[in-house]
Amino acid sequence: MSGFNLLHLITKSPPVALKPCSLPSGARRTKKTWPMTFTKEELKERLTPKQYHVTQERGTESAFTGEFTDHKDEGTYTCVVCGAPLFSSSTKFDSGSGWPAFFDLLQEESISNSDDFSYGMHRVESTCSQCGAHLGHLFDDGPRPTGKRYCINSASLDFQAKDSSPSSRAEGGAKLGGEEKTEL
Questions:
Q1: Cα–Cα distance between 32 and 17 in angstroms, integer?
Q2: For residues 2 and 5, what is the distance between their CA atoms, to the nearest angstrom?
Q3: Is residue 176 part of a domain?
Q4: Which residues are part of the catalytic machinery?
Q5: Which domain holds residue 86?
Q6: Is-above-0.85 flag for pTM?
């Protein structure tokens, strides 16, 4: 069809009513308010620049550079922003992607998922359901039994070893991304 014919078709056609469509991903919409909130100043003081960029500006760390990519210790991976437990080390696997990957959550309520259309593609973004921190993305190419792959930035995670007490975070210091930072 020539450019002239296409222009004629478009300009002479009656208006078409557009209908909203639902997305096939099955992802839930992200909540707009979170149970835990922090000011920008608090977060910039507590987090490293990389952690802030990933969790608050929806950034992505470079593949194969994260602290927890090849991490094998037993324990619980938590949100670096609020400390909410997210993943067990028993669900971590090597996906070959360069980011920590998990096939299941500690609790279904741990993470909120929403559609992400950045970079001209459709993905499912995973955020902490307690504070809204960007964690990474969810894909449907994981191992059994779930078939899911939570591809998570190391910068959005902290780690609680199986043999350490969970109260150590509340005693004033937390290890964030390899640097000692003071809890607020």
A1: 30
A2: 5
A3: no
A4: 151
A5: 36-162
A6: no
